[in-house]
Specification:
The structure holds 2 protein chains of 2 kinds. Chain A has 6 helices and 1 strand, in the order βαααααα. Chain A is mainly α. In chain B, α1 runs antiparallel to α2 and α2 runs antiparallel to α3. Classes of the chains: A mainly alpha, B mainly alpha. The interface between A and B is large, with 88 and 69 residues. β1 of chain A pairs antiparallel with β1 of chain B, so a sheet runs across the interface.
Chain lengths: 168, 103
């Protein structure tokens, strides 16, 4: 286990993540966009591995790359009447671009101004999956149970909404 | 050559901005939901990076990232159910054409 984050894997994974996200936004086909999102989530799981968060990387693969991508593809297929509807006109909006660029510049300046406070080297302690489990089931056990309740409620709500409520 | 915490933060800021652009500019409801997932993903990278670089022994950031994933999964499930319900009622998911509440 190394105690630093090497430049080359970080550069490769981060450029892959950014590129996939940009392709997701600028492709015209909705189905292609869903697959670009999947690729973006997979490379993010690689970033989690770099930060030695192995369990989170696995959860990311299962939840985002597995469940969410399949769900999005299902909804895309259910809401398209013809095959040609998947290809959309390019919707470009200058105000949205200005807003996002402003946010990016502000975030960049904030990180740069706080840069001296941030460490450039990793601490010696590497977190492990066993410690994460202990932490999750001792300190965070109540929020953990509430999270499962949220998932249950969301499941019931999703079924309720999508079955088509009759207009009385 | 190694990278530190600021590199991860800059990456997350860039990813969040991309997601913000998509969430504001896209006309398809499904694309807006996908852009929201992108933003949640950027926040998760931030949480995990802070947790790894600052307090690796307590792992608060990782636990928070896990709860973020739960909420994001619930959000995308409910959001897509809403999209399906919208499609059943109006036969479209173009956000421009969902303007019944416009006076």
């Amino acid at each position: 286990m190394t105690t630093t984050v090497a430049l080359v894997p970080f550069a490769v994974l981060s450029m892959l993540t950014i590129w996939c996200a940009a392709m997701m936004l600028f492709t015209r086909n909705v189905v292609h966009a869903a697959f670009w999102m999947l690729a973006c989530m997979v490379s993010t799981a690689g970033l989690y591995l770099l930060l030695s968060a192995e369990f989170l990387a696995l959860v990311q693969l299962l939840v985002y790359a597995g469940a969410v991508a399949v769900l999005v593809l299902f909804v895309v297929m259910l809401t398209l009447r013809r095959r040609e509807d998947a290809v959309r006109t390019r919707d470009f909006s200058l105000p949205a671009l200005a807003l996002a660029a402003l946010f990016a510049v502000l975030g960049w300046m904030m990180v740069m101004s706080l840069r001296p406070a941030y460490p450039d080297t990793l601490p010696d302690v590497t977190p492990g999956v066993a410690e994460l489990g202990l932490e999750l089931f001792s300190t965070w056990v109540l929020p953990f149970e509430m999270a499962s309740l949220i998932l249950l409620v969301a499941l019931v709500g999703a079924v309720w909404w999508s079955q088509g409520v009759k207009r009385s | 050559m190694t990278v530190g915490l600021p590199a991860f933060l800059l990456l997350a800021a860039l990813l969040f901005s991309l997601g913000l652009y998509g969430a504001v500019s896209k006309k398809s409801a499904v694309m807006v939901l996908m852009s929201l997932e992108l933003m949640a993903n950027a926040v998760n990278i931030n949480l995990v990076a802070f947790s790894r670089f600052l307090t690796p022994e307590k792992m608060t950031g990782q636990v928070f990232a896990m709860f973020m994933m739960v909420v994001a999964a619930a959000e995308i499930g409910l959001g897509l159910a809403l999209v399906i319900a919208l499609y059943r009622q109006t036969k479209t998911i173009e956000l421009d054409r969902v303007d019944e509440l416009k006076g």
